[in-house]
Amino acid sequence: MANSVLGAAKLAKNDEFYTQYYDIEREVNAYVEYNPDVFRGKTILLPCDDPEWSNFTKYFAQNFDRFGLKRLISTSYAPESKRYKVYEPTLFEMEDPKYDEDKTKTNGKIFVLDRDKTGDGRIDVNDLDWDYLEGDGDFRSDEVKRLRDEADFIITNPPFSLFREFLAWIVEANKRFLIIGNMNAITYKEVFPLIMENKVWLGATGNGTDMVFAVPKGTEVKEQDRQKAARLGYVGDYTRLGNSCWFSSIDHGKRHQPLPLMTMADNIKFSRHKEIRGHDYQRYDNYDAIEVPYTDAIPGDYDGVMGVPISFLDKYCPEQFVILGITKTWFGGASKTYGEQIQVSDGARSRVSKLNDGAAIEKAEVPTGTYYIVEGRMFIQVYARVLIRKVL
Predict the structure, then answer these.
(1) Cα separation of 32 and 239, whole Å?
(2) What is the pTM of this model?
(3) Do residue 53 and residue 91 come from a single domain?
(4) What angle is formed at CA 252 by the lines to CA 249 and CA 257, rounded to 5 degrees?
(5) 319: helix, coil or strand?
(6) pLDDT by residue (tens digit) across 346-383?
(7) Interhelix angle for 163-172 vs 142-150, to 10°?
């Protein structure tokens, strides 16, 4: 029992990342710059969001008038649903007539902003009303679903372990959204089809931009990530997540900027990448496409199918390229599958079936690193690739 509780607590800690105000501001400003009225007259729901811990409510409350919002709603989980956190009610809560010592442990809270409660002529964070929810604030509850259905936009940083379920919860209600997730979520079978259908795309902030998150005390943080956060000005209980990114269905200008591209010949002659410069583009053995290992090496004059890194989606312009698929088994699309395979890694050999879950390239000479032998032929497997072609 003790081990299971500790395991649950560790998972909860690793799910709890508090987004910095600056990162929210930088991302949301891109949508407002593209369309100044994008939020005007709209209701925004911020689930999984407690203003005492999170910056999402603070940011949208402070910009309520500028954005012309109709209503802002945020909900928080009950403290007892976060067993690792020692919860101490704030004076803000304890001095309110609504304060209930029992409910504050077992019930989530709802925060609503839609009027100038203080009478100072503006609507901001000081005008927030709050009350207890009937339940614990789980986004899957009927209570929070009703708030979802009332809203026009869903914006938050959901628990990473529930990303698939949370996105499905949003899509089910056909709401526009802006959420944070792991870049690798692109390859999920619940996510990629939405990207391919142009229903979901990456946000305006580039994936190469570091995002720093506050974390609960006691959370395990890699020292290099802690130091990176400190170099960016965040000292203490912070971590840097290099693979986090924004997922959105709100339009922004960056996604309509075409990539500047060289021809295939110029890439082979001038590319800064040694894998490209002086070499022909390689073809996959199990997909009818060429391998393009870097986004800036996409040949602008090639009309066929290309396999590009998932990071390409950070630069994806739907007016320039069509997304055709992804090199994952669950998606299908491979021209062949491989039977018995021998994986060779650091001299060790083992029987596997991994080669089928990705794009394979045949090699004439023994490759460096991990490779696979199938009927005497040698192959390497590249990371997940998005299959694209130019808009013709």
Answers:
(1) 28
(2) 0.89
(3) yes
(4) 120
(5) coil
(6) 989 999 999 999 999 999 999 999 999 999 999 999 99
(7) 50
